[in-house]
Amino acid sequence: MIKLDQFLKLLGVAPTGGQAKLMIINGDVKVNGIVETRRGRKLVLSDQVTVAGKTFEVADFVKLP
After folding, report:
1. Which of 18, 29, 39, 58 counts the highest number of beta carbons within 10 A?
2. What is the 3-state secondary structure (H, E, C) of the chain?
3. Whole-number pLDDT of residue 62
């Protein structure tokens, strides 16, 4: 699992943790189509994250060991 703010940094849509936090708090991020304001939200492989109109599948970026 990966936290939402870490995932945004992994995607490259947030260059820093502070930027990721602001995006999340401002309601700019959706998880599975619902606005998510908790930066520590733990994502699972089946989750979809939408930022700036683009949707990303967690499973495409995070691999289990």
Report:
1. 29
2. CEEHHHHHHHHCCCCCHHHHHHHHHCCCEEECCEECCCCCCEECCCCEEEECCEEEEHHHCCCCC
3. 84
pLDDT in tens, 12-31: 999 999 999 999 999 999 99
Domains of the chain plus CATH, in order, are 2-60 (3.10.290.10)
Cα–Cα distance, 53 to 65 (Å, whole number): 30
Could you tell me the pTM of the whole model?
0.92
Neighbour-count burial of 11, counting CB atoms closer than 10 A to its CB (0-12 exposed, 13-18 middle, 19+ buried): middle
